[in-house]
Design goal:
This protein is of the alpha/beta class and 248 residues long. It has ten helices and eight strands. An eight-stranded parallel barrel has the order 1-2-3-4-5-6-7-8, surrounded by five helices. The structure holds phosphoenolpyruvate.
Amino acid sequence: MSRKLIVGNWKMNGNLASNDALVRELLGGIGQPACDVAVCPPGIYVAQLQSLLAGSPIDLGVQNVSMNENGAYTGDVSAEMLKDYGVRYAIVGHSERRQHQAENDVHVALKAKRALAAGITPIVCVGETLRERESGMTEFIVKRQLSAVIHLNGHCISEIVVAYEPVWAIGTGQTATPEQAQSVHAVLRAQIKAATEKADRVRILYGGSMNAANAAELLSQPDIDGGLIGGASLKSADFLKIIAAARA
Ligand code: PEP
C-alpha cells in the first residue's frame, strides 16, 4: 500500500463558524500532502464542507450512513443522498455507534454495502473493549466484526478501508503501543488476504488517541496504512502534524 490515509472524525463537534475556521486553517497549512486526507464533519454540515473543500486535497467523509436504500426510515440519510454532496468516505461501525445506537455486525455490513453501491468508500471500524482484551478475545472480536462485512460484500471488500480502533483507546489518551496495534493489523491483513486477491488495495487505519506526538511511530508500522483521528483532528496544528507524519 503506497499512500497512507489520514481521516479526521469530528464527532458531534463544531458549528458553521468553527468549521469554516478549522478548514481554512487546514487548507492554509496542508500544501501538497504525501498522503490522502479526509474529514468527517457532523452530517448536517456536509453541504458547507463540500463547498469549503472544493478543489482542495482534502476529501469529504461522513460519520454514518443508513443501512437502507430509501423510503420510510425517519431520520436516516442514504448513501445516494450523501453522494449528491460529494461524500467520498463513510465511517461505519464506529464503536460509539455500536455502543450508543445498538449497531451490530449485521447493521455495519449493510451500511458498508449501501456505501459501496453508491460509490462511497466505507471505513469499517473494528475494535475490542478493555474487558475483551483482558480476557484474550481481541483477535476473535475484530475478526468477527470484519467477517460480517466480508461475508455480505464478497469481492467488493477490496474497495473498503478498515479502521482498527481499540475501544479502550478512543478518546482516553491511552494509545495502543505500536506493537499492540501492529499485531492486530497483521491479523486483519491476513483475514483480508484470505478474502480477496486485491487485499493490497485495502488500507487498514489505526484509531485511538493518535496525536501529533505518537503518529509517526504508529504510522511507521508495516501494516498501519493511516489513521482515524478524533480529538486531535479538531486542532488544525495537531492534525497537520499527523498528516505530515504520514509519508508512504
Ligand atoms: C475516533 O473517534 O475514531 C477516535 C479515534 O477518537 P480519538 O482520536 O479522540 O481517540
